Amino acid sequence: MASQHASEWHLQAAINAAAGLADVASQATFQPSRTFQGSRPGFFFTAGPQGLGYYLDEKQADEGKAEEPEPEQVKQLDPEELLKQAEEDAHIDQIQLLDAKGLKRIVTALEKKYKENLEQRMKYAEAPEKFLDSEVDLDEQVKSLLQVAGSPDLYPLLVELNPFPTLLSCLSHENTDIAGDTVELLMELTDADVLQEHEEEARSLVAALLENNVLELLVQRLTSFNEKVEEEAKAVFNCLNTFENMVETDPSVAEQVVEKTRLMKWLLGRIRPREFDSNKQQASELLAVLVQGSEKNQKKLGELNGIDVLLQCVALYKGRDPGTAEEEEFMQDCFDVLCSAMMLPENKQAFVKAEGVELMWLMLANKRQSRFGALKLLDYAATRYGAPCEKLVDLGGLKHLFGAFMGKAKIRGPTGERDVEQEVEERCISLVASLFTNLGPKGGRRERVGAKFVENEFEKADRLLEIYFRYYDRVAAQEALIERRLNEEKEEEEEDEDEVTPEQIWMERMEAGLFTLHQASLVLAHIWGLGDTGLRKRILGVLHQRSHSLAHVRAALLEYYGSIGDDGQPEDVARLRSRAREALIAVGATPEELEQQQQQQQQQPQRGAKGEEPAGDGGEVRHAGKASKLEASNAALRERKDKTGDAVDMDADMDVAMEVEEGEAPEPAQVKREQPEERESKQKVEEEKRDKEGDTRARESKREKEKDREQRHRTKEKEKDRGARDRPEKEDEDGRRDRKDRERRREREREREEDRKAEIKAEEEEEAERERAARKKEERAARESRELEEDRAAAKEAKERERRAKKEEDRTKSRGEERGGQ
Fold it and tell me: Is the pTM of this model over 0.90?
């Protein structure tokens, strides 16, 4: 950055040398200025009768007129000569690069100028013109430190000299120009370009700034800037950039600045106004950086009512698209912040309470650019949480979701190198899987989702299988590449420090699309479990066409079942495992297989740790440890590669389908099929067992209902007695809160009802307008047809009269001739 400032200074010097001095006589006699902006030919800076600014120096102007030479003929110079002349005029040969000695001199001068300015301000507090020169010197000295940004190798020396107390004191200076230049200096010193090549130096600089309370001072200065002034608005932009640079250099700064300061509250207030500017976009970007990956900051965002604020921000784009690229980035930043906040269950609850699902549903229906962010946010909110899934189905959102799933609704994503279509496809699969996982059997919502795969001749099931095959091929290709690489390492038998770990293998497979493959397999298993005969035949037919079977789906699901972690609420994790277990049993998995998969998942960390220990030769042991993860995770997939195995799987699939239709528990492909007699006896035992369990549950349910009824009766009697004895004058706080909540819900229902009525009324008016237009068109056509018929009749009548007149004329003529002959 220092070289950039030097080049700008050289260019300005060249322009001044080529253009010469301006005609001072033609300028105004006074140029107002709040601060000293450098020398100006023909003027001097002072506080005069017209205020603070530049006044015309008449003596210098007269001398300039007297000595003004006659204009010479301008010589045309080529670019090389012009550049050479500019360098000579700028005295570039006299410029020296900053070294350690020069840095010490600048730091010493900075401290000296700061003390002088402080003394002058205290001495002449009532006469600003007397300490004006010292402030100009201090400002120039702060700017001179910009050279250090171009020499990151001097950062250790800068930290050792420790000018930061003096420098950060300038942030609190009453002169906003000095404070703004200090913020710009901090932004340049912490620039991300420095981190790429001088990471240690940048970290040491940020650590030194943190020791001197840079976060608190920056936030204090940030809140005092007036953005209506252009210079101060630029200082706010630089301040936000400085925070972002420090977080990029040291990620722990994100939690520190939120914990120690009011920055997050200021950011939420800054993005709230409807008017858009660059600082609003920068505030949203910084908010996204602070919230991403930090559970503390996500929790703080929810406590500050940030979910509601962000929903209000994205609601602006429900009916319109962003006007500029910066505004589009602001909208995407707001969606990113909301998605990061959805990692916490309490934020998901706030999202549902603030009617976020309804807003996302409206965005999906309005066909605007915000649909991409709405789909992404719904995916995050519905993960391991049932309330958004229920609301989405109740609102009729399945129509828009499956429209995007089928690729019929074209969704525009953010501009860039991202594959929007692929991401939309993955989001839809993940959201459908969440619907099957989180929706319960009550209310018929789960059946409504499953019915979508049956309608229109199973077109959605065909689309699901298409996605499943595509991601299966991607993952298989990546597995083959990993296996080939491991074999090459085993043949070389060389010790490699960067050996492939099981975690790296897992991440490579995830990048190839393993997560979407798991989700597609989960949805396939769930729709298989619906029991629709036509749907099952369609799934088996398409699978067998591609030499696949239910064993492939079951193998992917077993891996998914073993990879379910304990993150999140215990009840959500239990529900996730229970639904995955149901899906596995539906496609023929046995409890023994499920137990074995859980045991393998628990042993994997131990096996990975053993693989990292050096033992014996080292190379073969490490290779075995690396390959074991891949072998364990893909064993079921590689068992079905030959055609004979595929044929056996096809027969087993048909058996599973028929047994499930008969009410029998699904049988895995590897287990030998039972005889019909054994199957009938087993079925009778199971039916008797189910009848007994049903009777037991019915009796228990009846007893519980009777107990509840008695308890409610006793409670009512006690309340009546208590009310008769002493009725309280005031309602308790809970009752008032419940009443307010009910009133608020009624108000929201009324507003939604009014909106629906307004939409219905608008549609009716449009329909009536279309009918009136159609009637007018018909009336116009009928009127034109009548006029045409009338014209034809009039023409015909005129012809008839003409014919009659001619006939009468002929008759008269003939009579006259007869009379003349007589």
Answer: no
